[in-house]
Design brief:
The protein has about 130 residues and is mainly alpha-helical. The protein has 5 helices and 3 strands, in the order E-H-H-E-H-H-E-H.
Amino acid sequence: MTPPAHACVSVDLDGLWCYREIHGLQRREASDIDPAYSVGVRRLLEAFAEWKIPATLFAIGKDAERPAHAAMLLEADRAGHEIASHSWAHDYGLRHKRVWEIREDLRRAHEAIESAVGRAPVGFRAP
């Protein structure tokens, strides 16, 4: 495939657990690494490297706390991609929360992402 001449790419790293919750499906026990990371993020990083384009990856804070996910986020960061915040819990009702609850969610996401990649996130995308 021919790489794009110019690109601006952003990706929400919503794991399978997130989609199960969105659609009201039964929650399953979390494994060490979500296929959204082990398959999806891996393929994205390979494609971005081949096309030589940087991306912004919006990570959910509680995913960034999982060691295997944190390792992939660090790899993405070191490859030149921005790791931004997609909140801590990916709560679609975040906008209905009290201000202090929103701040706490965003603080937790900020800390989890900073811990995973060694730098604080700058970008943010709401769930």
